Amino acid sequence: MTHSYDESENQGRGPEEPVVVRDRRRVDPQTGQVRPPGPAHAAPEPDEAPVEHAGPSLGESIMDDSVTVVSDVEKELSERTADLQRLQAEYANYRKRVERDREAVVIGAKATVVNDLLPLLDDLERADQHGDLTGAFKAVGDKLISGLQRAGLESFGTEGEAFDPSVHEAVQHNTSPDVAGPTVTVVMRRGYRFGDRVLRAALVGVTDHEPGAAPVDPPVGGELPLGGGLDEQQQ
Question: Residue 87 pLDDT > 90, yes or no?
């Protein structure tokens, strides 16, 4: 009994895959020549994907993009750090300038108040010289002077100190061989300074050295000075 072919048996099957025949014979049957050996000359299989080259192509950068991003971030961070340091320095200078200006304003205000009290100090000094500064009046005057001195008031202008035109105002001038240079010998009005600021110059009389004159030795024990007799002294 022969088996009849039924087309219905192959209706549920898909299309058959084509048969690929690879001729691996070393001798070509058509030309009779030996084919070159090795797989290097063999054609690539149709189902094999081409192998990608691992290295960079010509003209392609070998640096990683992440390295460039990190470098840009570091550069920007350095710039922002420099800006912050510059702002901190400017703010520190601004604070110093404000403090210096504020201190100058405070000192100026104090100096203005003290300057208005200088005539009162002159009256207290004259009263003390005449013996009128006594009792409760003297206690109040001493407290006033002590408070002004604690605030920064300083007086200058005493007899015997060297003449300084920046703080002394000379209204009288004499010469004498007893001094080696310009010297304050008379104080007519005391001077005052507040801190580094001179509120008022001192009115003084100045005595300068007299050139060519030697001081005369006073008589000792009733003896006459050397260099002359009684007639010369009378003349």
Answer: yes
Residues facing 184 on adjacent strands: 206
> 67 — phi, psi (to 5°)?
-65, -40
C-alpha torsion angle, residues 173, 174, 175, 176 (rounded to 10): -130
Tokens representing residue 153 in the block: 């008031």
Q: How confident is the model at residue 71 (pLDDT cuts 50, 70, 90)?
A: confident
Q: Are 155 and 202 in contact (CB under 8 A)?
A: no
Most confident of 22-26, 60-64, 202-206, 218-222: 202-206
174 in Cβ contact with 207 (< 8 Å)? yes
Residue with tokens 């600021």: 197
Model's pTM, two decimal places? Answer: 0.50
Residue tagged 């460039």 (tokens): 68
Q: How far apart are CA 218 and CA 225, in angstroms?
A: 7
Contact 182, 215 (CB under 8 A): no
Structure token digits, residue 140: 């109040």
Q: How far apart are CA 46 and CA 25, in angstroms?
A: 19
Q: Are 208 and 172 in contact (CB under 8 A)?
A: no
CA–CA separation, 11 vs 181, rounded Å?
A: 141
The position carrying tokens 């990683």 is: 64
